[in-house]
Amino acid sequence: MKIYTKRGDTGETDLRSADRVSKASPRIEAYGTADEVNALVGRVRPTGYDDVDDRLREIQNHLHVVQADLANPDPDPDDPQTEAEHAERLEDWMDAYDEELDPLQSFILPGGGTAGARLHHARAVCRRAERRTVTLAEEEAVNEHVVTYLNRLSDALFVLARVVNEREGVSEENPTY
């Protein structure tokens, strides 16, 4: 099977339903930005920490579900869908990792070591994916668990960035005003 189909050459793409839509539609923007997050998470791995890498692998799989969910405006019950449990799993991880970290006293500058800085980048793009999904939800029905998941994922990526930086001995820097 060829990778290229030429069907997108006119600026349209197919949804899961086979409906054709503009590549600039809010739905495509939402799941395309989730795809960016997924690629950025993939760029972080391997971090050198098996527990973090396992979490990132699972996050990438969750993001595939998010993308499938957003690409399907009218899912059947057996279609991939984001569930409340996806966000709950992230919360459990964050709660466990918080024990490893000093409490935040103020904002921190995104950065650190290579893995930490990449996780901060993924977090920022995740926030954009969330905004794009909220924009879509203002126009069309969207699974409510997708917005929740993306919101929680940006928090989880922030915590993972802090954990990796802590383990690498990289100090957090505070902004000056």
For the biggest β-sheet, the strand order reads 1-2
Helix content: 55-70%
End-to-end Cα distance, whole Å, is 56 Å
Describe the global form.
elongated
Supply Rg.
18 Å
**Percentage of residues in DSSP E strands:** under 5%
**Which homologous superfamily in CATH is the superfamily?**
Cobalamin adenosyltransferase-like
Question: What count of structural domains?
Answer: 1
Q: Indicate the CATH topology.
A: Hypothetical Protein Ta1238, Chain: A
DSSP summary, beta strand count: 2
SSE topology:
Layout lengths: L11 E3 L5 E3 L3 H19 L5 H21 L13 H15 L15 H26 L4 H24 L10
Antiparallel strand pairs: 1-2
Helix pairs in contact: 1-2, 1-4, 2-5, 3-5, 4-5
Tell me briefly what this model is.
This protein has five helices and two strands; from the N terminus they run ββααααα.
Structure commentary:
This protein is mainly alpha-helical. The chain has one domain (21-71, 82-99, 108-167): Up-down Bundle (Hypothetical Protein Ta1238, Chain: A), CATH 1.20.1200.10. It has five helices and two strands. The protein has helices at 26-44, 50-70, 84-98, 114-139, 144-167, and strands at residues 12-14, 20-22. The chain has a two-stranded antiparallel sheet with strand order 1-2. Helix 1 packs antiparallel against helix 4. The longest helix has 26 residues, at 114-139.
